[in-house]
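Objective 1b: paired records.
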Amino acid sequence: MKKKLSIIIPAFNEEKNISHLVAELNKALNSTGYDYEYIFVNDGSKDNTLNEIKLQAEIQPNVFYIELSKNFGKDYALKAGIDMANGDAIITMDADLQHPPHLLPQMLKYWEEGYDIVYTYREDANPHVSGFQKLASKLFYKGINAISDITLENGISDFRLLDQKVVNELKQIDEYEIFFRGMVKWVGFLQIGIPYTPAARHTGEASYSFFKLAKLAIGSIMAFSVRPLYIATGLGLFFSLSALLYIPYIFISYFYGYDNLSGWASLIATVAFFGGLQLLVLGIIGSYLGKIFLQTKHRPNYIIRSTNLLKAKNDSVRV
């Protein structure tokens, strides 16, 4: 019996890329000897993406769609696809054709050799990003590796293969603000990475803004570590002890008659600095408390508006 692959593709405003992606995937997978299906997750697209996916589903019976009720975000879209996939292995990738389908045979080869997870990471020599983007990417991964409890290669992507036993573990995860790149590393198993150079986007523009990337960085660090709390505690202890060194200066000024008003500017600067530091520490603590608050609500990670998966598989797919 042939092994089955489930290719999960989150899509947000990718109407002009769908047909081209399916054609490229067919070229890469037709000669592999596997059964395969495409599961597109429409993440609240505002354009004609869903209709393009439905059109492909009419042409190919192995094309399926999951329509989310709104834009939940890429990681939640991936979670929706993973929860409903039932292949012997799943492959996650973007819909913009930057993840090269020609790598699929190599990924499958590593899987057959016994690797449970085959992930990809971007090479530094990427001609499609600016110098600032490269620097920001390096700083992001250096920061998360230094502060969190996981280690990520610079430029690690969402183009990966996961064995079914890994998928079964990921299906059980119910967390607020999922960060799949870190979660896949955290679960362990036997992993191997493949470097690649991304292709240019077929059409459209990247949907991640600077502020979205900053939010992703903060959220991913807090999802895998409490070290920011330790750092905040250490800063508070250091400056509290440092303040004790000011006591000798007070006594010397008093007994020798120094003009206390002469240090007015430095006093204001010190008060402003420590006030800002206190707000920073309170902000870190508040962020963790906020995550706990949202987690206790137990709201679903995503809501499915419609799908053709259950109908096509006679309600055999786990939701």
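Objective 1b, second protein:
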Amino acid sequence: MADGFSVNFIAHIRSDFQTKFGIPRQSGLVEELESTVVFTPEYRNPDALRGIEGFSHLWLIWQFSGAVRSSWSPTVRPPRLGGNARMGVFATRSPFRPNPIGLSCVRLLGVEEDRELGPVLRVAGADLMDGTPILDIKPYLPYVDAHPEATGGFAPAAPERRLTVDCSPAMLEILPVESRAALLGVLAEDPRPAYQDDPDRVYGFGFAGAEVRFSVDGERLTVLSVTKN
């Protein structure tokens, strides 16, 4: 039996996230986030997408390109547990895995034909950094992929805590119109590491071509600045 096999990147995603910081912890948490799947030249064949419009959701299988390492650990520290408790890597969705592969469920908004890029997919709810390589795309099948009775281990449900976001309209105008609601949704999910809670600390991340800086005090997040990169 072979020890492994080679894979090809079939596409890359174009998203508003320039770095890993700020990306929602799971796909689908911020539905306002819109991204584009751009296929590599070899796979820009419209026949490969024939029938995909009939599915409302898709699975994206992708590489944690920002977390590729030469070694791995059998245990990791999930942020959901405050970054203190260790759990088995296969009991988590940590990016630090023997094979750095991610799985995300996204909503298909449409298939468009780009003059230079060929057929592209517009999707919502992706939790991928801009430029992330995509290994495969598969349709989401509700009759087998949805299990309402499933148990969630140490992460049984989405966190109920959402922050109140204070951001002036003038700051939001720095961003493209289609990215403004998405930014507010990302901030409400609290992009800080779960174990950090310093009201005097200023955080920042790149989003939609701008640098967003903010602080958090209790349940309120205040956007301090939004500046063009």
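The longest strand covers residues 101-114. The chain has a mean pLDDT of 92.
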